[in-house]
Amino acid sequence: MNFPTLLILIIVLAFIFDYINGFHDAANSIATIVSTKVLTPFQAVLWAAIFNFAAFFISKYLKNYP
After folding, report:
1. pLDDT tens digits for 23-33?
2. What share of the chain has pLDDT > 90, as a percent?
3. What pTM did the predictor assign?
4. How many CB atoms lie under 10 A from the CB of residue 34?
5. Quick check: 30 and 40 in contact, CB under 8 A?
6. In contact, 41 and 35? CB cutoff 8 Å
């Protein structure tokens, strides 16, 4: 396997790992809050959804920040 093909394969695998790892991070953060009984499962998922949605717009603003 030549170098450019190997490099592309490694980059693709890194993106796949990062995408899958995001699922685990979200589940761990919700599980921690629910297991400590700070929030109900419904409230935890609702908070996560709201803040993930807000983070999308905040990150778009910060990306264009000079």
Report:
1. 777 788 889 99
2. 44
3. 0.58
4. 16
5. no
6. no
Residues in Cβ contact with 31 at an 8 Å cutoff, skipping those fewer than 6 apart: none
Six-digit token pair at 4? 């450019």
For residue range 32-44, list pLDDT tens digits in order.
999 999 999 999 9
The DSSP line for the chain is --HHHHHHHHHHHHHHHHHHHHHHHHHHHHHHHHHTTSS-HHHHHHHHHHHHHHHHHHHHHHHT--
- Which residue bears the tokens 């761990």? 28
- Both tokens of 10, joined, read 């490694």
Return d(Cα 14, Cα 33) in angstroms, integer: 29
